[in-house]
Amino acid sequence: MTANAAPVGVVHLTDRNPQVSGADMLASLVPPPQFDGATFDTYRVDPAFPSQQEAKDLLTTFAVGSGPIKRGGLFSRKPKEPEMKPGVYLDGGFGVGKTHLLASIYHSMPARRKFFGSFIEYTAIVGALGYKNTVEHFSGAGLLCIDEFELDDPGDTMVMTRMLGELVRSGTKLAATSNTPPNALGEGRFAAQDFLREIHAMSDSFQTIRIDGTDYRQRALDGHAIALGEADYDTQVAEFAQAGGASDDAFDDLIRHLALVHPSRYIRLIDGLSAVGLRGVHTLTDQSEALRFVAFVDRVYDAQIPMRATGTPLDQVFSEEMLGGGYRKKYLRAISRLNAQTHS
């Protein structure tokens, strides 16, 4: 199989240039399909990390209030519910179930209007609709969930902070997540401090909820991301194509193409696919290319689409220099997800 000869059912992502309207973006603000059925009951607490149960209890109260009151007699008093702020920030490593809990809040909260999206999706909506129209659309909503809150771009962070402040004043509750590396002593605390410092204008509106644990994606996996030989790659991509459509692109071609598509549209690049195929993977050396690939991987993972690749194993796509730099958290999260998707 070559990049220029595509069998039936095989497409090239580089041939796709999806356009997404503001209305389309708004309609997509729901949890990813893999979390359609996420509830607090289906969140599997690891007893080795008590903060997981504590977080589950606090977030249940945040979403639906306390459970039934047990009355022990004439003079028994109603237990005092913990005072919750209008916003909660889930602070913890990747793979500890933060997105599951965020989706559980979304599904459990009895709000007529509620929204769930990634930080990048909300900033793209502001870009498409304008700040004033975006605030007007979300104003009065019962809940706004923000997955993977990004602190890298001061301009985007400032716009989001201003918007969230206006929404809180309209009565909207907020729930946000971001990532810290698992089992990295102290770094989780710094992440919470970074978050609150960057949104200082409304930091008092957020309650930080710490979630410790190990990456659940790695517990069931053996080793690293799978790199295939050419023959096995051709066979598997063809099988996925027959089952419902697959992509086949040279890694370098896809990396160049991602620079031409806004990250908010990456989800449309993979519409209708049952697998993503990449040939000739190698370690990236350009930071901008690496960050765009991270955003792409996030969308593939959200859609739970398997990945097949040749060349360098996908969990080695980021250089050691990148892994030691300021975007380390993003790259480690992407590696975890790439490993999972090559095994799926």
Structure notes:
One of its GO terms (cellular component) is cytoplasm. This is Cell division protein ZapE. This protein has 344 residues and is α/β, with parallel strands linked by helices. The chain has two domains: 10-20 and 219-343, Rossmann fold (3-Layer(aba) Sandwich), CATH 3.40.50; 47-65 and 84-213, 3-Layer(aba) Sandwich (Rossmann fold). The protein is built from 14 helices and nine strands. The chain has helices at residues 22-27, 50-64, 98-108, 119-129, 131-138, 154-169, 187-198, 216-219, 230-244, 251-258, 266-269, 287-302, 320-323, 328-343; strands at 10-11, 87-93, 114-118, 143-147, 173-180, 206-211, 246-250, 275-281, 307-311. It has a five-stranded parallel beta sheet with strand order 3-4-5-2-6, with helices on both faces. A four-stranded parallel beta sheet has the order 1-7-8-9. The longest helix has 16 residues, at 154-169.
Keywords:
344 residues, alpha/beta, Rossmann fold, 2 domains, five-stranded parallel beta sheet, four-stranded parallel beta sheet, 14 helices, 9 strands
Q: Which structural category fits the helices and strands?
A: alpha/beta
Strand order of the largest sheet: 3-4-5-2-6
Q: Which sheet architecture does the biggest sheet show?
A: 5 strands, parallel
End-to-end Cα distance, whole Å, is 22 Å
Helical element count?
14
Uncertain segments are: 67-76, 181-186
